[in-house]
Amino acid sequence: MSISPRRSAVALAALTALVVSGCSDGPDRPRPAPSTAAPSSAAPTPTADDPAARAAALVATLSDEDLVGQVLMPYAYGSSATDVSAGSAAGNRALAGVDTPAEMVAKYRLGGVILVGFSADDPTSGNQATTNVDNPKQVRALTDGLRAAAGKLPAGAAPFLVGTDQEYGVVTRITDGVTQLPSPLAAGAAGNPALTEAAWRAAGAELAAMGINMDFAPVADVLATRSTVIGSRSFGADPATASPQVAGAVRGLQAEGVAAAVKHFPGHGLSAADSHTELPVVGQSRAVLDRTAFPPFRAGIDAGAMAVMSAHLNVKAVDPGTPATFSRKLLTDVLRGQLGFRGVVITDGMNMAPAKKWSPGEAAVRALNAGNDLILMTPNVGQAYDGLRAALRDGSLPRTRLVEAVTRVLTMKFRLAGHAQPALGTLDDAGHRKAAADLAAAAVTVLRGRCGGAVPGPVSVTSSGGRDRTRALLTEALTAAGVKVVPSGGTVVHLVGYGDGAKDLRAGADVTVAMDTPYVLSGAKSPTVLATYSSTRASMTALAAVLAGKARPTGRSPVPVPGLPPTTCGA
């Protein structure tokens, strides 16, 4: 298809807006939204090495079909790009009319693919239709295959996006063979952004080694309610302490060539409802939003976050009745205008209930017109693709909006292009394990009982149902720390985790430990109650060191627990 002068002019205008918008008026001043006006003769000329210049030059060569494909980032069935089971082939045919992920990339000129999977205690499992992650070697082969397919496309000069939700804690897509960080809430309890940055840098290196260059993390939601869908995915209830944690995670990921997508804007922690199944209502005033919800997002933006994920939330103070994903007031006026974000805005999963109010094509058009640049996890790739093309033809999707979105996406891709891919041998290495261990150790919190000192031995470890593996990890760590562990009796240490309540507490336990949000501890009768906020090996090792009297617990609960102080260990 030939390139019209109009398309070239639009691409140049979009480039100029992106380049000029790189300047900031400072973090506390409203910044104007990007302009799509024609560039003035005084506008700076980007160098050939400038990612924005490369993006605009590439956009000017792309057909409508290529432009539309670049804003789509679906999931696919199969653990290989080209060789899938009969069941996976059937899933891909229903989703996109093709058999394999590679064929999906080629047919729809896709900008990226999200890898999906299941993990224990995962509150997002409802919209994970399949899993295509197993182990690092398999993931690397899959991402290599996807990139081989994408490299043949007209937009193939820009790195293909492969993303996943590697938040650590309850939402961790790849669990085997990688360094497991403690949950974000544990990082909030540790209260040391430098430790957070180091741990997330290790995570970024491991994701990059597997061929993943976009992480839908960190969660910037302030835990203002007892939301089980957000919970320990948040860094805490106080925006002043959560904000530097978000910034640290962003810097860590992006230092290793993995784009951070800060989520879920404008703040899923302000509602306890689950946007996977309903449209949560955020009823707080605009003043509360400015004071509570927005600061961690601003911190992530100021740290250089390449992407922000919009949420399916009904924010009554700004655009009542319209999910934020489809709200121009929230995404264009607030996120870009007030908070000054210049990067890629990506939707939350479009296969979630609030987005399925419309057909896949109409939902994609509405999301782009609101200000999103990438459409994530559409429930039907063909319908979304065809709907965007039809809207482009009839003018309901302005060409300037699509070109602007694609230019942003390609700019991000070219920013990622300068990072070399680490070898798989870097996964779970000693340095990465130490970064995770340091963060986990700093998180352990005593909310009742003596600050430090060994518990009297011997010790028996019990737990709520289904936590045999975690009991085994703690038993192993206690034994290594010199504590005798017995099958029953002695000092009883009882573990509770995600989803547990009063019924899961143990009467007569000497020590109760919360391995997720610590709210359940308000009902515990144990003379000593602690929180690790996480059940990883590093967290159980850190807990064992405290119980053995070999480490002083320095964490502070990042959320209020009724009847208990943030810590008994002083300031």
UniProtKB/TrEMBL annotation:
Q: Name one GO molecular function term.
A: beta-N-acetylhexosaminidase activity
Q: Which GO terms describe its biological process?
A: carbohydrate metabolic process; peptidoglycan turnover
Going by the UniProt record, its keywords in alphabetical order are:
Glycosidase, Hydrolase, Signal
Query: Which InterPro entries does the entry mention?
Result: GH (IPR017853), Glyco_hydro_3_AS (IPR019800), Glyco_hydro_3_C_sf (IPR036881), Glyco_hydro_3_N (IPR001764), Glyco_hydro_3_N_sf (IPR036962), NagZ_Beta-hexosaminidase (IPR050226)
Reaction(s) catalysed by this chain, per the record, are: Hydrolysis of terminal non-reducing N-acetyl-D-hexosamine residues in N-acetyl-beta-D-hexosaminides
Chain intervals for the UniProt region annotation (Disordered): 24-50, 552-571
PROSITE patterns reported for this sequence: GLYCOSYL_HYDROL_F3 (PS00775)
Q: Which domain of life is it from?
A: Bacteria
EC number of this enzyme: 3.2.1.52
Locations of Low complexity compositional bias?
Answer: 34-50
Q: Where is the signal peptide?
A: 1-22
Query: Family, per the entry?
Result: Belongs to the glycosyl hydrolase 3 family.
What's the name of the protein?
Answer: beta-N-acetylhexosaminidase
